[in-house]
Amino acid sequence: xxxxxxxxxxxxxxxxxxxxxxxxxxxxxxxxxxxxxxxxxxxxxxxxxxxxxxxxxxxxxxxxxxxxxxxxxxxxxxxxxxxxxxxxxxxxxxxxxxxxxxxxxxxxxxxxxxxxxxxxxxxxxxxxxxxxxxxxxxxxxxxxxxxxxxxxxxxxxxxxxxxxxxxxxxxxxxxxxxxxxxxxxxxxxxxxxxxxxxxxxxxxxxxxxxxxxxxxxxxxxxxxxxxxxxxxxxxxxxxxxxxxxxxxxxxxxxxxxxxxxxxxxxxxxxxxxxxxxxxxxxxxxxxxxxxxxxxxxxxxxxxxxxxxxxxxxxxxxxxxxxxxxxxxxxxxxxxxxxxxxxxxxxxxxxxxxxxxxxxxxxxxxxxxxxxxxxxxxxxxxxxxxxxxxxxxxxxxxxxxxxxxxxxxxxxxxxxxxxxxxxxxxxxxxxxxxxxxxxxxxxxxxxxxxxxxxxxxxxxxxxxxxxxxxxxxxxxxxxxxxxxxxxxxxxxx
Length: 492
Description:
Number of strands: 0
Structural class: mainly alpha
Largest sheet: none
Helix content: 55-70%
Distance between the termini: 96 Å
Oligomer: single chain
């Protein structure tokens, strides 16, 4: 009998234990469920209880991503080291949302979170480091002393430099910006070249003009040269121009390309002649950088490039015409007109495109000739150029629409479509023209533009038109999704 009582008592204890465990689990589950509440006070109270019972550290990894995300805001409101520790753990979350929310919460907590965030840069995993860097970069001047110390650590200095750059870029005053950028500027001259190479790209990305002089000196150091050239290009200060030019003849194609790109960003006219002198370079990356650089320098480069249009090397002629796109230098028009007769279609197309700048009426007759080119690439470029000239080209384009050549009229219509808004009022007026041919092409062009402001005018003309023009107007209104006058829908 005693044996049976013992078994009964043991069974009762087991049931009670299971009940207690279940109750604890149910309470914990209920608290986690409250984290997703829309009521912040409910979320905050649930978070406080979870913190008091030390449930969060072990329980969060198993919870829904929404729980792990939503808990950050109440943790920020509660504050304290327990909340900070939990948020630090969330920085490593395998989902982006909880990690981002934790970083935001730590920023809200402010300076109290700085020691823990700094520690993450020393020992955290890659995801945690990235999130901690993001947070530290938004903590303002208070984070600078911590980040300066971390710059001496080989593991964390890259992230520390990035965070300092973010602090400086977000600074509210020049003094605050200087406080963040000064350690980075000093790092450029540091004997530790790895640290210098971590700081230099940040200074370039943030365009810190105070770094120009040390960066100019850094060019002399082979291990720093590439990053220094890129940074000087991003800062775009003309003081660096003459320091960069010699590296256009460097043995390394990568360094030459970086130099050409940097000189283009600076856009100093003094670089035009040295850059044009490298136009025979065949490397595709370099040529792209060169063309863009010469375009940015503009007229001072264009007047030198016209000589290259007579080169026997087709690649040189292509680069020369491409480099004049968007420059708009009137003295180049005669040379570009000659280039429209080049045996290479790519050169002809580039020359046509180079003639297309706003109000360049002098180029209109030249481009009309280019519309007769046998190569579609040249025709397309000429249409684009006529569109770029803008309103001053409209009368000539309308004359093509009124002419007897349907191909020329089609090209004119395409140019007007590409011109867009500047052509719209003139096209509406053209619907009232006594010339049915111009009316027809105006309707076609307006339909291709897809601008519904034209519908009332097209409907009005449709009522009094007939024959082919009426058919075209019906098609235009249909393309614009408009109701045809006289249709059952228009009468309801």
